[in-house]
Fold this sequence. Notes:
It comes from Paraburkholderia xenovorans (strain LB400). With 162 residues, this protein is mainly alpha-helical.
Amino acid sequence: MKRLYGASLKTELYRGKPEMRDSKIAARAAIDFRDELFGRNWPDDTGIGQFAALPASEDVRDYAARARAAGILLGMWCAPRRAFVYPEFQFDPVGKLRPDVAELLAILPNDDDRGGWRRTFWLYSPHAYLDGQSPAEVFGSDPARVLDAARDEFAGDHDAHW
């Protein structure tokens, strides 16, 4: 019997099963993209607490949890840091939360997205409606275009294009 190791074993296992190979490739790409996003060193609860100028009596984690629950702040769970981190597109240059974030988050589907990953992946992936830029790249200068792209993709009548 032929012994297979490494890449040749994978080739043999996936031969004739392109859906398995494709799903493995997609999973690897998603993991790589997630790791790239982790590398951006986004602020955690403490970081946004500094921007928000909270009173000393208010707990930063409670504030962030309430803001996430209210749909005015997108948090992405970062397992290595054991904390939510907050993508920078949501904040203006001085660290204040942009007012249009709540409207955007109301449009983006959040079903089964407690960790914020689906929304974050959409926000940081190139979008045809935005000339290949990601919604996060465009949001700071033209939030209306991003809101239109989100509405078109998630809130519109999906049968209207037929």
